[in-house]
Each structure stands twice: as C-alpha cells, then as structure tokens.
Amino acid sequence: MIELDSIDHTIIKALQIDGRITNAELADKIGLSASACHRRVRRLEDEKIIERYAAIVNRKLVGRSVSVFVEISLECQRKETLSEFEAAVLKVPHVQSCHLMAGMPDYLVHVTCEDVADYEAIHRESIASLPGVAQVRSNFAIRCVADTIALDLDEAN
C-alpha cells in the first residue's frame, strides 16, 4: 500500500469529481502552485494510484438502463475452466463487471441492457453458452440506489 497525504487525497477527490479539470484549476482548488500540483498528479499516475481517466456514459440515454446481476456457477473449479470462462466473459459486450466470488456463486456478473427481451437474447446467445457454466441465476435491479466509481479515501476511515 502506498502512503497518501491529505494533499494527495484532495487531488484524488477533485479528479474523481471532474477528471477534465485543468491543472491550473486543480492547483487553485488545493492551494498549490501549478508545477507542484502537476508533479503530484504525475506521481499519482506513475504509481498507478490513478489508473486511467474515463467518460461516464448515461446508460439510459444509450439504451442500457436495465441492470442485471447474474450469478454464475461453474461445473468445476479447475484452473483451466476458470481461465476459459474468464477469457470468454470478457468478450461479452454487455458485461460491465465480472467478479470471482468466495462461496456460491462462482462469479457475479453485472450486465446492462435495454429491457427484458434484450437480456433474454444476451442470456441465450452469450451467457448460457460461456465455457464451464453449470447454472445461471439472473437478478434484475429495480432501482439503483448508489452507483459510483469514486473511492472515498477520507483519512478518517
């Protein structure tokens, strides 16, 4: 784990809110010179604390407002089966995230789609045919209560 001071926390928080903030604006916001701020951000990037920058797409406006959390159990836990499944699930376009779980199920996959019919096609054509799949259980989200990519790095935690 890399030690971060309060200035690092402030920089990260500001960039998580607005990744397109200019260096000058960020420096003003945190009370550093532009060059010192730039060095800090560069160090956070070089040390991979800041992995990448991205645009957050409005799922509703692009026809992907339905979230389905898919529990997938595999036939076995052999290394080859896990590897084959993971390589294949990465190729499914509607998969937002895939997590190897402890206990049951083996994987929890977040799929976004337009509606139930869209998910049915994704399930039939992609998910059910993934290598090693023994059981699939789909859970439709009714409403999103919290959805963030920001990490709370408050030193009080």
Q: What structural category arises from helix and sheet content? A: alpha+beta
Proportion of helical residues: 25-40%
Total helical segments = 5
Mean pLDDT: 95
The CATH superfamily of the largest domain is identified as Lrp/AsnC effector binding domain/regulation of amino acid metabolism (RAM) domain
CATH classification class of the largest domain: Alpha Beta
Query: What proportion of the residues form beta strands (DSSP E)?
Result: 15-25%
> Based on CA inertia axes, which overall geometry fits?
elongated
Low-confidence parts, pLDDT < 50 over ≥5 residues? none
The neighbouring-strand order within the major sheet is: 2-3-1-4
H-E order:
HHHEHEEHE
| Strand segment count | 4
Named at the architecture level, the CATH assignment of the largest domain is 2-Layer Sandwich
Number of domains: 2
- CATH fold title of the largest domain: Alpha-Beta Plaits
Gyration radius from CA atoms, angstroms: 20 Å
- Report the sheet with the most strands, covering strand number, pairing sense and barrel closure: 4 strands, antiparallel
First-to-last CA distance: 15 Å
